[in-house]
Design a protein that fits this description.
Blueprint (H helix, E strand, L loop, with lengths): L8 E6 L3 E7 L6 E8 L11 H12 L4 E6 L9 H17 L4 E5 L3 H11 L4 H26 L2
Parallel strand pairs: 1-4, 4-5
Antiparallel strand pairs: 1-2, 2-3
Helix pairs in contact: 1-2, 3-4
């Protein structure tokens, strides 16, 4: 089996308030922070929320071949309420950006790791909150990319 096909992937960390987005290089080697999108909780049930519209625009702009969404599995490996919400979000995203595939990947501890790495670099408080979602998206996407390369 070969590694993932060439092309940019977007990594997405879905939060209650914000969504962190990262992107990979076309070779699938390195994930870098891209943007933080505000979560739209005001859209009518039959409307597409603005955060999904923004993500669809990013997929198009970066010509992404896949979107990797972090699934918050608890430490025991089970899917709690947060995972159920993220699965539903990923499904709505998949409907909006089809035919670009959406892949779920275990993101246990990505926000914790991202927060720790930012703190080690001296990024704390409000500055950290502003970028932690992007950093978590980088952790999610980089872990996924590394796992894909290990499979080859």
């Amino acid at each position: 089996m070969t590694g993932p096909s060439r092309g940019v992937r977007l990594g997405v960390d879905v939060g209650q308030v914000r969504i962190g987005v990262a992107r990979s290089d076309p070779h699938g080697v390195l994930a870098t922070p891209l943007v933080t999108v505000a979560r739209d909780r005001t859209a009518a049930p039959d409307a597409v929320p603005s955060d999904l519209t923004e993500l669809a625009a990013l997929v198009s702009e970066h010509e992404a071949v896949e979107v990797v969404v972090g699934l918050p599995v608890n430490l025991a490996g089970r899917h709690g309420p947060a995972a159920v919400q993220v699965k539903a979000y990923a499904q709505r995203l998949a409907d909006v950006i089809a035919p670009v595939p959406v892949t779920l990947t275990d993101e246990r501890m990505s926000t914790v790791v991202a927060s720790r790495r930012l703190a080690e670099r001296g990024v704390r408080g409000k500055r950290q909150r502003a970028v932690v979602d992007q950093a978590a998206a980088v952790e999610i996407l980089q872990s996924w990319l590394d796992a894909q390369r290990r499979r080859t």
